[in-house]
């Protein structure tokens, strides 16, 4: 590799400057490298020819004798200047220096008269534009303002602040602007301080807040904030993003102005000024943004390199700045044009030169520019060529073997073949960039190579290099050939029987079919050799019905896809319609209208059946619930009876007979009344025996006898004679004439008896 000092590089480059009208201007340019070196100058890209007004000094600097913003012919000495240096290694161009004329405009803001009460705040402002930025000073009553007075604050942008006003502050004020171009005076303004200091409470208020500023690194920013109120508010500063402002280079001017010296990019942000009432949370705020720009500078410079012929050279140039810089590459002072073997990547940060040759040997420059400034760096590419290297391989040919294979053959070089250790075949799709190239190594005794795994219907370029231990030969001639086209893949085929004479062939579209123009469908009876077809179908068709078939034989159906390269492999299916015919005989066609009506009837019957079943279930549940309740009541009465004191045996039998008779009679009466049965009908169906009649008479007399007692005596009964009767009301049927039928004697016993 070559160092900068042994090639060609700038030691001093021209810088931005502001020139004074009718004054001389010198632009410096100093170069080091291998002599002889030639230096020339350009303005706005055009060569500068030595003249009486502008000429180059012996050290390479440019001298302008009388700088003029506008000349008589309409031209101007303002513009962008750069110097170029050239030797036998190449040419380099310096950074661009922006030259402007010093100027000063009239004041566009003048101070205004003000009347402020004692103890208040007064503010005067004047503004003027100029190059360079004018310095503004203030005068009071035609005398410079005493800047040692801490109540007087002068801000760089032409602002005068006076706090804690007193009567002696009254007077006439004006400002004076000065730069190398001129000196100008503003109009005068009168300040009147009235009355005495007021003790009336006033909320804090910000009179003037910070402005939005755009500055460059290392400059000074002044953010103004002036507030009033009674008591006097406390002014504080913060960043909107919550980051600390810091203390280095930070200074407070007057009662609340923030000054930041030696700006960096990290100072960019939104600054908030707050006026706080002492001892409370009452506050007022104002904010302004500060944008700090940084000129482009290199993080990584390109390095000079030496590479053998046919290899790849890579230059890297990384720059930073705010805003981010744009990178441009030059080759020997001219803008570099990209091509198949010259590529720019990573936002132009990387320059790659593939398959370099002698013509690529040059000085390459990286220019980084943004709105804050520009810079440049250079590096040289040296192409190495050793004597005695083989000449390029001869007779390179490429032949297509298949859709994915090409055979490349060549002949050995004509010169210097003894030291050849092998060949390298360079392969690339013709449509791809050079960086997509790949290589295959071949032994020195082989003069052909079968290249596989290629893409169908694709053009490829090939060239060969012969290699020795000292380097590679130049590249052979490039040959381009295309692979064969590929026929479509086999489609998937499905057969569906529609009826006894029709089948439907369906298939699925698939990307695996590749590029195809359509489908061909064939079919035949299996015992015949001749196919019916082809039936040509479009590429978007996925089904076809084959009709008028013979149900007694088996058919063969064949489908294939085709394109401009030919027919693909076919898919074959066999189908028989005999089973369909047999099913049709066994299962005759249905009467659709009848089936539909039956379906409707069946549906209605199902719904009615469900309703009936649900109703039955509900009644069963109710029956069980009420039956269970009756049994509970009866068991309670039985317990009361069982707990009654015993009576003498002599009385128990008679009484028990009476109770038994009464109970049985009551049960008979309930049966007669509840079911409304005809007694005559019952007697006819069930004639009573004599013993039964006598028993009934005895029971009736016993029942009458028991009715005469005032109280009924209850005795316990044996369990084998004990029965439970569910409690039910005993409605008495009315006599048609209003009288009641013969009724049993009143019973003063329990409602349920056993």
UniProtKB/TrEMBL annotation:
Signal peptide: none annotated. Residues 663-673 have a biased composition (Basic and acidic residues). Keywords: Disulfide bond, Glycoprotein, Immunoglobulin domain, Membrane, Repeat, Signal, Transmembrane, Transmembrane helix. It comes from the Eukaryota. Residues 8-100, 105-192, 204-287, 295-382 form the Ig-like domain. CDD domains: FN3 (cd00063). Residues 392-486, 487-583 form the Fibronectin type-III domain. One of its GO terms (cellular component) is membrane. InterPro entries: FN3_dom, FN3_sf, Ig-like_dom, Ig-like_dom_sf, Ig-like_fold, Ig_I-set, Ig_sub, Ig_sub2. The keyword DNA damage does not apply. Residues 643-654 have a biased composition (Polar residues). The chain crosses the membrane at residues 606-626. Pfam families: fn3 (PF00041), I-set (PF07679), Ig_3 (PF13927). Residues 643-754 are annotated as: Disordered. Belongs to the immunoglobulin superfamily. DCC family. This is Immunoglobulin superfamily DCC subclass member 3.
């Amino acid at each position: 590799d070559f160092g900068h000092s042994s090639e060609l590089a700038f030691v001093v480059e021209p810088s931005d400057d502001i020139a004074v009208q009718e004054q001389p201007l010198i632009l410096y340019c100093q170069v080091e490298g291998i002599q002889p070196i030639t230096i020339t100058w350009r303005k706005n890209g055009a060569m500068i020819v030595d003249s009486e007004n502008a000429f180059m000094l012996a050290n390479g600097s440019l001298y302008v004798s009388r700088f003029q913003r506008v000349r008589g012919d309409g031209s101007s000495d303002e513009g962008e200047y750069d110097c170029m240096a050239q030797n036998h290694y190449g040419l380099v161009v310096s950074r661009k220096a922006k030259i402007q004329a010093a100027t000063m405009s009239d004041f566009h803001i003048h101070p205004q008269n003000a009347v402020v009460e004692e103890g208040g705040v007064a503010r005067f402002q004047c503004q003027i534009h100029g190059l360079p930025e004018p310095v503004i000073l203030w005068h009071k009553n035609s005398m410079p303002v005493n800047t040692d007075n801490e109540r007087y604050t002068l801000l760089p942008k032409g602002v005068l602040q006076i706090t804690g006003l007193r009567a002696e502050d009254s007077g006439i004020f004006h400002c004076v602007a000065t730069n190398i171009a001129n000196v100008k005076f503003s109009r005068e303004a009168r300040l009147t301080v009235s009355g005495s200091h007021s003790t009336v409470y006033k909320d804090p208020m910000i009179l003037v807040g910070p402005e939005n500023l755009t500055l460059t690194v290392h400059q000074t920013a002044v953010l103004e904030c002036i507030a009033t109120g009674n008591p006097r508010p406390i002014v504080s500063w913060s960043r909107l993003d919550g980051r600390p402002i810091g203390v280095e280079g930070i200074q407070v001017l007057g009662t609340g102005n923030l000054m930041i010296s030696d700006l960096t990019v990290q100072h960019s942000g939104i600054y908030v000024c707050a006026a706080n009432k002492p001892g409370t949370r009452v506050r007022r705020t104002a904010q302004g943004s500060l944008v700090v720009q940084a000129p482009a500078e290199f993080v990584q410079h390109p390095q000079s390199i030496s590479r053998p012929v046919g290899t790849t050279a890579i230059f890297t140039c990384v720059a930073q700045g705010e805003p981010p810089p744009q990178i441009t590459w030059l080759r020997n002072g001219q803008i570099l044009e990209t091509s198949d073997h010259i590529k720019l990547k990573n936002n132009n940060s990387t320059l790659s030169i593939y398959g370099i040759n002698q013509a690529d040997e040059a000085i390459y420059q990286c220019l980084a520019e943004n709105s804050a400034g520009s810079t440049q760096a250079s590096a040289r590419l040296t192409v190495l060529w050793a004597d005695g290297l083989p000449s390029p391989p001869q007779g390179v040919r490429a032949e297509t073997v298949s859709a994915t294979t090409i055979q490349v053959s060549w002949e050995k070089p004509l010169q210097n073949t003894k030291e050849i250790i092998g060949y390298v075949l360079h392969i690339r799709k013709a449509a791809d960039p050079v960086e997509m190239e790949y290589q295959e190594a071949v032994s020195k005794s082989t003069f052909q190579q079968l290249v596989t795994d290629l893409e169908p219907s694709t053009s490829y370029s090939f060239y060969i290099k012969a290699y020795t231990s000292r380097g590679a030969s130049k590249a052979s001639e490039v040959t381009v050939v295309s692979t064969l086209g590929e026929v479509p893949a086999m489609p998937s085929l499905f057969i569906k029987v529609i009826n006894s004479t029709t089948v439907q062939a369906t298939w699925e579209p698939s990307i695996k079919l590749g590029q195809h123009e359509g489908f061909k469908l064939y079919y035949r009876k299996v015992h015949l050799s001749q196919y019916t077809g082809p039936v040509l179908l479009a590429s978007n068709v996925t089904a076809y019905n084959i009709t008028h078939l013979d149900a007694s034989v088996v058919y063969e159906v064949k489908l294939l896809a085709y394109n401009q390269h030919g027919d693909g492999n076919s898919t074959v299916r066999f189908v028989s319609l005999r089973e369909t015919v047999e099913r049709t005989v066994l299962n005759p066609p249905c009467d659709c209208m009848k089936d539909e009506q039956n379906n409707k009837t069946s549906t209605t019957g199902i719904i009615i059946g469900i309703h009936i079943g649900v109703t039955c279930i509900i009644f069963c549940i109710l029956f069980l619930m009420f039956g269970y309740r009756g049994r509970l009541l009866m068991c309670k009465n039985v317990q009361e009876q069982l707990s009654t004191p015993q009576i003498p045996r002599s009385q128990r039998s008679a009484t028990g007979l009476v109770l038994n008779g009464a109970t049985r009679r009551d049960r008979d009466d309930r049966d007669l009344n509840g079911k409304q049965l005809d007694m005559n009908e019952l007697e006819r169906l069930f004639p009573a025996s004599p013993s039964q009649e006598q028993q009934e008479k005895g029971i009736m007399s016993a029942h009458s006898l028991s009715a005469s007692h005032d109280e009924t005596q209850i005795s316990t009964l044996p369990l084998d004679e004990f029965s439970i009767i569910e409690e039910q009301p005993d409605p008495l049927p009315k006599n048609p004439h209003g009288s009641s039928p013969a009724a049993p004697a009143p019973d003063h016993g329990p409602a349920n008896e056993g």
